[in-house]
Each structure stands twice: as structure tokens, then as C-alpha cells.
Structures
1.
Amino acid sequence: MNNIPYPTTIIHIAFFFIILAITSCSVDTECRQQINVVVGVQLQGDSLRLNADSSAYDTVSFTQIRGLSVHGLEHDSLLADGLTSISTLQLPLKKKADTTAFVLSLAGIEDTLLIAYTRELSYVSLACGCAVLSTIDTLDFTTHFIDSVELINTAVTTVKENHLKLYFHLPQ
Amino acid sequence: MMAQLSNIGQNMGQGSGQQKVVEEEPDTTPLWQGMNVKLDLGNTVYTLATTRAKRQQYEIALNCNLKNKFYPTIELGYGLSHDIVGGGNYDGQGGFLKLGVDLNPLRKGRNKYYALLAGIRIGLGLQQFSLTDVTLNDDYWEPGGTTMNFPATFRADCWGEICFGLQIQVVGPLTMGWYGRIHFLFTGSTGTHQPYYVPGYGGVDAGNFSFNYYIGYRIDWPEKKAGKKPDNELPDAQPTELQN
């Protein structure tokens, strides 16, 4: 009997491997990765408010704003509808152009923000497809209610983070 | 020396009645115990059935039996993949080579027909693959997205395997066996775009376990001289124990 190495054990081990093989060979065809690439904009504003005691105007800073609507230039779909208070914006860049412009509206006044960038195609996976990563080169904007724009992070990747800090002053 | 050990053993046994000295017989098994050519049926049938032939893999293996203990192994094969996934289409095909060695941990009943095998492999897969209609989602500016193609790319991938298996005699020189493999891809995300499938390794996004079922043919080459069979070798006929 020594010449046969434990036939029942062989069957059990084989069965174990077959079960493992059947249960472990499924192909993952669903995209589970973050592939959205957007420019994160942090909003920071100030306004002048009349101080009742001193009859002078005080500067009040705030990081949330209500009534700001945003859409892409020559594009109707809204990125922010102005109905809720927001503290950040997520601006998607065009994947087939090197510049993207956005129109910001507040109390009937419009400003335009232009972002110029260089693009890099990044293959994520067959399930997810590709993402376009960008590096912000320059910023340009009108200054009706936008005071200034600070570039705090040039690399726009699939990681959600803030890239711009937008300072503005509310019209009185 | 062996007689001395035996005497010592007898003396110790008489003195205490508990301790024993086990004599280890010298391994007289000749180094060369033949070869085994194997054709993988399990993985081939499994991939054909589960992928509707969109993936195919064919593999042959050759192992040499050294002292019924060590089994240097070479495995050669061909694989192809035509996968259509949500993010694009993948077309790749190529060959693979695996080199490694198995160890038979069995002590009792060790012979050249039966083996419990545990071993390692290093694998190399070469393929040409292309990615077509890969999605580039741009929900805001271009709803519905757009697609792009990557040109055909030559790619070499390397991986390691830990494998466990069995090899038994069916009848005469025919053998069969199983292998369960755990593999680890060493070449991950190199290059601008990565393969979805690696010949010999399988799907990159799939689990890292695979299974082979082999039918083999044992080759006793070169032929042994008549009347010089090792002590622990079975006759070529079916062993009587198998019939019980």
C-alpha cells in the first residue's frame, strides 16, 4: 500500500483545487476606480457691511456663497445653479482642448475664468477607459466681482483636491 | 558504521526499554528516473468554456524526474484574448515560457509514477496587444464620451508562481495530474497602457489563482539495462494495489 500515496487524499485535494479555481477566476469588468478629473476651486469672499454702532463699513469674510451660478462658456448646462450655498466648485476641463472657459454669475453680474493647461492621456484600465490628466499653466479672468485667483495646485488628476482659490467681493 | 549504530540501538533498547535509534537507509535510487510530457487539458477546456473561446490557452509541459524527489520543469504555451469590456476592446496573443522545479515531499512509497508536488515557477509571457474603442468619458463637454485606439504594442511580462500538484499513473506510461497555482505579476503598471491579459498568467484583473489538469506520457529515455531496476520502482503494469 505504500506505493500508492493516499488515494482518498488525492481526491480531496483535487476537489479543493477545482472549487478554488471555479470560484476565483471571475473577471472583473466593472470600473471601480475614480476617473473623473476636475479642477477644484475653493471660494473665499468678502463684503462691506454697515456697522450700526459706528456708522462705518466693516469687511466681512465668508467661505460660503449663495446665488453663484457657473456654466461652461458656450455651454448651457449648469455646474452650479445658485440655489444653494456652496464653498467649492468642481470645474471639468475639456479633454480635447488646451483651454477651457467658465462663466460665473452673481446677482446679474458675470465674470469669465479661463484656464490654460497641458494634457496627458492616462490609461486607467480596460474597464474604466482613459482619463486625461492636466497641468494648469495660466489663468485669466475678468474682475467684475472676482478679486483675484490663486493657483495652489497645478496638477489636476483623479484625486479630488483644490487647485484654485477664488477671491471675490460681493456687489453691494 | 551501520553495524555499530545497530549495536548501539540494541544496547540502548535493552538498557532503557524506551529509546530507539532509527536507521536511515541510504537512498539508492538512480538520479535519472525518466521524463514526463504533459498536455494541459483543464485550463484549456475551462477557458474555452467560461469565455466562449474569447480566451484560449494551450500548454505543454515537460518535467524530468530526478531520484523521484526533484522535478525540474519547463512549460510552454500559447494564449490569446479577445475581451470586450465596458471601457474598450482588448486583442492580444502570444507565447509563454515557465521554468521551475517541483519537490516531492513524500517519503514513504516514493516512486516515479506517483508524486505529490510542490514547487515554484518563473514565467515569461510575450505578446502583441492592442486596445481599441477605449472610452474617454467627458460627461459635461461631450456627453456620451468619445473613444480612442492604442496602436498594437509588444509587451513582455514576468511573474512568479507557487504551485501544488499531483502526478499519478493512469495505465502504462499514461499519467495525469493536477496543479493549483498562486501567481504574482512582477511587471505591473509599466508603460502608457497595460495589458488586460497575459499569456500563461491569465487576466490581470482576475484572481491570482489558476488550475491545470494534465494528461501525461512518461518517457523512460534512455532505456535502462535489463535486470537493473531500482528497489522502489513499480513494474510497468498497473500496480496491484490500485485494483483493490
2.
Amino acid sequence: MKAFAYVSAPDVATAVRAIATEPRAKFIGGGTNLVDLMREDIERPDTVVDISGIALTGVEELAGGGVRIGAMVRNSHLAAHPLIRSRYPVLAQAILAGASGQLRNMATVGGNILQRTRCPYFYDRAAACNKREPGSGCDAFGGFTRNHAVLGGSESCIAAHPSDMCVALAALDAVVEVESVRGVRRIPLVEFHRLPGATPHVETDIAADELITAVELPALPVATTSRYRKVRDRASYAFALVSVAAALEVQHGTVATVRLALGGVGAKPWRAHEAERLLLGAAPTEESFRRAAAAELAPAVAQPHNAFKIELAERTIVATLAQLLAAGGAA
Amino acid sequence: MTQVENRPRTGTSGPVVGRPIDRVDGVAKTTGAARYSAEYPYADIAHAALVHANVTRARITAVDTAAASAVRGVLAVITHLNAPPMKPARPVNLVNLSTLASGSSVNYLNTDEVHWNGQPVAVVVAETLDAAEEAAALVAVSYEELPATVDFGAQEPHATPQKSTAISSGGATKGDAEAALAAAPVSVDLRFTTPGHHHNALEPHATTAAWDGDRLVVHEGAQNVAWVRDQLAWKFDVPPAGIRVIAPYVGGAFGGKTMIWPGTILTVLAARVTGRPVRMMLTREGVYRAVGGRTPSTQRVALGADADGSMTALIHTSVTQIGRVGGGPEQVTSQSRHLYDAENILVQQNQVTLDALSNTAMRAPGESIGTFALEAAVDELAYELGIDPIELRMRNEPARNPIDGKRFAHRALREAYARGAELFGWSDRTPQPGSMRDGRWLVGMGVASAYHPSWQFQANVTVRLAADGTVLVRCGFHEMGMGGATAQAQIAADALGVPFESVRVEYGDTTLPTGPGAGGSGQTASVAASVVAACEKVQRTVLALATGSKDSPLRGQRLADLRARDGGLYRTDDTRGESYAAILGRAGRVSVDAAVGSDTRLGGIVGQMRFLSKFLLDNRRWVKAASGAQFCEVRVDPDTGEVRVSRWLGVFDVGTVINAKTASSQLRGGIVMGLGMALGEETLVDPRTGRIMNANLSDYHVPVHADVPPIEVHYLDEPDPTMPLGLIGVGEVGITGVAAAVANAVHHATGRRVRDLPITLDKLL
């Protein structure tokens, strides 16, 4: 790990001022991803601005039924919060499906949104990686691609976004609030992460001097019947091969409301807009679930080691929707 | 016997062998008082970090150490350009088995050649670990790359047969197995593959080294401290007697700490160069790059049978990998010579040579992956025949060793299956694949045989019986977590008839009498044999002291007529006798001492020859092994193919069980490791570069707690008459058969045969 300067910021104003004057600085919250990346020499900040003491730790109900979550709320705290468990069970389940108890105790909501891919070629400085070194090439092509994206990748990069939490946030229409010395912006989660295109090193919409301060969840009654299903290579402590965040409401024999997002398969947390479009107003049958899933995965581009994810994603979508239906998605 | 995890009674009385006594080092380990190799304090200790090559075959053309040297606190950046010379790897010589222990033939930092992707090409020494790691990342090495052979799959067609030697056999035949297979009314002919695996002991490899002139102290988590000493003495050209290797605690090893790997040598080199005590613990990635792993394999198992299930043909061949710089054949087909009474047998092991680090021992090298292929194939044959898989095994259970007709020292596989089937509820199983469900889950039950040969090595031991009734056993054996000191204390306590608490065992230090390495599941039996012999010597001396006195009730008695109990010797005819304290006190003796084996140079050679001749003689007379029946229940998600092992039960024939608690732990540990092999573990070597791409615990999937079901371990507890105290080692048999039992259960649940490990969900979609 490269030696670095350390600055502790007691509040948002100090933090964003500190980073505005330090072009090679990084915020550190829980550090569960950044410290790994620094130890692996992937991230080499000159300065680390510690924001873990900033009191962005509230989980508050908003007028109208939404919830505002402070960016420094620890993952385990959020997953255990009664507001989240009762109104957005998909989010609590997604968080608990990720990492380990120790990591969730440290990891923050803001940091989780900004975590970087686990592509082994990104992590290995001996390999070519356009994300790590723009223009250097991509050794994942022709290499081990079991954990790589089938949706949203490009010729430059097929790394998958690793977060579980973000998949649930994508399904829930979450909005990310960011702040800098220039002011406050609000970015929908589904627009927060970028597809790699020709610039896979540009991963999000956030500027280098902006700090995530909060995530807001809108009131979403359908989310009380929601579920996160994660499929992975062992029972715990593994990234998703495929995950599905879903919420479903059926009225008068047709799908009245549906939210669907996928993890493990996308270059970013993947909101399944096409599947949602087909499901809305359709009969809640396995057949229509299957058709919607297939349509969502139709643009998928597979590599030799991850072709199975397309069928796995379709099966997992169908099974998850069917379970939601059985669990009371029908009103 | 079923293990009962009760608390030990304080103040044991009566025999303790077999009892589930808490390990003697339990408190030290759970409180952190136990010191591991990287935890020894030295006043002016320096820290080292390795720089690994990131190319496979190459010549180093330049090394830029300027940036690394400029990091504050860096003491030395040692490369092939400035390293002092060391002797090349020692040639192998069977009179001194420590010559087998060179991890590779590369003379690290004394050569500009790179032989595998990950070979250390520099070591940085600094005042702090952080400085050493930061500087190591700044060492810039330039290479001229050379063509390399790294793709195991592509090399398989070029495999060459393993030649047989006095201590390892590459192949064997009985009859004409191919012809019998062709003629068999029912047969299977199958190809299996298993990937490479890597070591992930809780404690990564660590060394602390301190020179004083030509004298050296090394703290090294090792499976053979004497081998570390001898190898280092050779490399650094100093007398072995001046080197002390200390390893009372080893945080797991599983075969990975048997050889002397570059991290050890380069820590000692770093200490030599800097004149400071130096500590280095490999990073987790470093363990993958600089310590060998289990070879990948391809295997063919072909079985032919009559309609009644009698096997007429058994063919098992394998291809495994060795490194061009070291490693050796793995006995993948070993169990196939012993498990089934086939009329015709053909076994043959083959190798390919790659530009890779040496393969090395990893829990049951050979049998762990060999039993997967054989036992999965037997299950397939059972389905072809329409015979229950246990019944098929029983119909082919041999009375004598199938390949050559030798006698079994001990064999109780029939009893193991009978007991296991009853305890597991095998009769509840409906044989049709996919026929059992639990809600949405598909349920499957599978079995497989466990098999591992039993070994016994030379062990030098001293036993001291003190006048106060305490006993000191000294032997340089190894405690990697299996409970060796506890077991040997139990053995000595019973042999001398003293309370367990009176016995102290010293181990893990080259200043002690040379013990066996911890390997081949042979350590407990090897040390036990010498402890029992030494205790008998002690008793003879004590008896001589007693019979020398006219006051002793033991006067005129022979040892055979006496029983050691209650801290003394007592007649079996009329219970008269005396305590050791009384006898030694009357004779004015502080202690009585006995030794088995000698650590003089001549004694060492004599011991080695004695071991080899006993090994060869035993091999001629008997087939000795641990065995067992593994029962597995799985649940498979029909939508996603996820496999969850829901229940495990193993019944083991491991002879006398010395400590039912530590033995169960070891067997359970083997089963857990087998679950890793079955479902997750796979070293990913990029076939383009020869580079391991999942050198971490995130991407290399060992089982987590949620993957491990309740595991029931049972013993038959019948002594093996040819082994000391009737005991057979338990270190490795637990992992054997596990992957096959899982694969067979998965087939029963889903109807799918997965013959390529690991059984990941994509193979079941």
C-alpha cells in the first residue's frame, strides 16, 4: 500500500472542502472496499478523507411515506431497521445476502453504492484492464468470465457490478443525494452507475469532489411484497451469479405494479425495464413471467464461462415472481 | 463409539485412551497465549515481503530497485543481482529423507531464470511490514519472456506413465481388464476431471529467523522441523547442529507445510543479509504463488460386471501434473487396488510436466480425488445393474487384497456400511432419481467408500519418570491442530498407569529427539509406538530398582506379571505392589529415563534404514489402511441448481481411537474439506499466462459455515492388530469419498451425473 495523508472530516462541509483542494484524494467511510483496493495497489490516493465521524447516520421517515437514509448508515444497521424491514423487505434481504456480518457492520450505504467490480483482471495488476488503466485492453475476454456481466457490457469491459444493496435500490426507485462545494444534486440510482462503453474507468455519475450524503426511497406500497433472491456459488459470502430484486402487486387477475432488478448479470445494477413493461397488465402466470424474463435477457451477450447466467437469470426471475405471487402478491 | 463432547473430568483416574479429553493446548489457543511462528518477539525485528514474478518462463533482464529502496524504513532490497550465494537445491538421497523436502529445484535469487508465474524474484526487508509491502510493490522487474507450457488440458495427450519405485508404484495389472471390460454384460467407461486445489490453512506460511554467527533460530509453522533444519543447513552451508527450528503450534498445514518453500529460505536469507531477526508471513495471495497445491487430474474409470453385480473388470487410470522444477506423482489410483474384488484389474498413473510450481501434498494426495472417480463410477455401475449401491459394494467386498492377494491387516468396511446404513436411514431412500422431495427441494442420498493407507514412520522419543510421579515425554513431532500432545499424553498415562494430568509432552522443536513428520496420517501411530516402547523401558528399569530391594513386594516379579496403575506397578495375582515414588525414593533416584531411537549421525542412518526395511517388509505382508462409509444427503433447488448438503454421517474403521474428541474433529475437518472439493474449490490457472487468477479467499471457494451441515462421526473402534495400540491415523481418511458421496447424492436428487469437479450449479441447469 502506498503511503498517504490522512484527514478527518467532522462534517460534510469540511469533507467536501477538503476534497475540493486535493485532486488525488478519496473519501473513506467503512473502508471495506477502498482499503482492499489500496492494499492491492489498485487505488493509490495521496490523501484519504475520513468521513466515518460525520453524523449522516439517520434513517428517517419522510412526509408521504418514503424513507431517507444517511450515507454513513452501516449496512447491518439499515438491514435491521424496522422501517426498512416492514416497508422495503427486499432491501433488508439484499443487504443481508451480501458480504459477511463483520463487513456489513463496517460498510456504509454510500460506500456500498460506490464499490468497484470484483473482476479478477481488474484486481490483478499483471493483467490488462481498461477500467484500471484506460486503453490497456481487457484480459477478461478469453479469460475466466464466470462472474462477468452478460448485460450492458462493451468491447472494452464486461465487469459486473458486485453490489446486492444497489439491486434492491434500483428496484425501489431510490434517489442518491450528493453534495460538493458547488451544491447538492439528486441522481436516480438507476442513472447513478454508467455502462462501460468506451470509458469503463468512468463508473458513476458522481464527480470526484462530490460526497454521497443520503439515499431516499420513495413511498412504494408494492414494496411490502418484495423479495431478494441471490444465487451464488456457496451458501454465503460469495458474490451473486444472479440475483433478483422484485416486488409484485396483482389486482383483478392482472399485474398492477411490478418492480424488477437484476444483480450479477449487469455491468451496473440492472433495472429490468423491458420485463416490467411486458408484465404490467399481463396475467400473473408462469408463462408471462417467463416471456418477460426472456425479453429482458434477449440482448444478453455471453462469454464462454457465463453463458449459463442467461438461463439462470430467467429461471430465477420466474421463480422469484412465482414466490411473490404465492406469498400474497395477489390483492 | 460415538463421540460425546463432554467436559473432561479434572483428576482423571483409570485408563484414558479412547476418552474425549479436552486438548491440553485448548486454553492457550483460545486465549491467544499460544505463539505461532510470526508471533515471537525479537527486540530489533525487521519485516520482509516478497516480490513475485508475473510471467511464467523468462529471464530477468533488469531490476529497478531505486523507488523501493527510497521508501522510508527499507533496510534491503535483495534480488539475484545482490543476493549472497546459496547452495543449489539438494539432490535426493533415500538414506536421508529430508533431501525430499526441497519445495522446488530453483535456487531463488541466485538465478535470473523464472520458472513459474509467481516465483519470488526479490525480497524487501524493512523496519515495518507496511514499508516492506509498499516497497515490494515498487520493485520493477523487466523480463525476456520465453515459451511456456501451462495448460494442463492441452498437455494431457502427452502424458507419460509413472515408473514404479520401491516406495511408490505407478501401475499394476491383474488379468486382462480391457478384454474383460469388453466382454462384460454390464459396464461403464467414464471420464472424470478434478481441478487443481490450493492450500488455505488458517495460518498462512510464516517464518521468523534470527542468526547469531553461523547459528540460526527459526520459528516456522512446519510439518517436519528436522527437514526444515536440514534443508536450511544445506542451503546456507552451515552445520545442522547449529540450527534450531521451533514450531510448537502450526495453524493448520494439510500437507502444505511439508516441503521447504521459498518464503522460508528467503526469510532466512533476509536475516543473513541484514544481520537482523526477520519475520515474514506470506500474504494469502503469496501462499497461492509460492506454495504448491494439489494437481489437477483427469481420470478414466471403467467397470465391468456380471448381471449379478460381480465385478469382472476394474480399470482406473489418471493423468496428473508435476512442475518442471519439482513435484511428484500422486497416487490417484491407490484405492482402486484395494476396494473391489474384481477378477481383472488395471491401474496406471500418468503425468504431464508443466512450467508451474511443484504440486505438493494436500490432504490425502491421490486418494481424495481418486476416490471421487472410483466411487462415483461404482454408483453409476449400480444404477446400470439396478442394484443398490451399498449392496453392490458388499457383493464385491474382497477377503484379500484384490490386486495381489495379500492379507488385510484389518478390514471392516462391511460393518461400517451396515452401521452407517442403519444410523443414516438408508432404507428410507427410494432409488429412483428425483423421487424424493422436501417441499420444492429435490432430495438425494448418496454413499461412497473412504480409504487411506496407514503409514508408520520412525520416531525418536525419550520418557522421563520423575520421583514425584510426573512424566515427561519428549519428541520433536508436530501439532498442527490435531491434538497430538493430548493423544500422546493419554498413551503415556495408560502405559505407565499414571493420571493423564501427570504427563507433560514436549514437541515441535529440533532440540528434542527427532520425531516423524506430520504426514501420511502416520504421526500418532509412529510416536505412539516409540512412547509405548520407551514406557516399557522405564518400567523395566523401575522394576530392576524394585527387585534390587529385599523390601519390595515386587521382588522376583517379571514385568509381564505386573500391571501399571495408580502411579506404580502392581501384581496381577494379589494386587500387591508399589508406587513409582516409593521405588525411586528408596533407590535414591530423581528420575528414571528411557530413550527410543538415536539422534547421532549413525543412529539417524540406522533409524532410517530400519524404517525403510520395516516399511518394505510390512508392505509385503499386509495391506494396512483406514476406511469408512460416507453418507450424504443433499437438497437441490430445481430452479437454480444450487446444492446444499443437508446431512452427513460417516462410519470409520480407524482402529483404536485414542481421543474420541480430537479424532472426531479431524475426521469432520476432512469431511468439510471434502465438501469444498465437491462443491467449490478450484484453482483457476489462466491457460494463456499460467497465472492463478483466484489467489484469494473471495474467489477461491472453500466452504463457509452455511455450507456445512451437522456431521455425525462414528467409529467401529476395533484395534488393527498390526499397528501400535491398534491405532490407524485419522488425518486424511475423512476427506476421501466425500466428493463422490456428494456427486452420487446429487445424481439421486436430480438424475444428473456431474463428473467434473466442482459440482457448481451451472452443471445442473
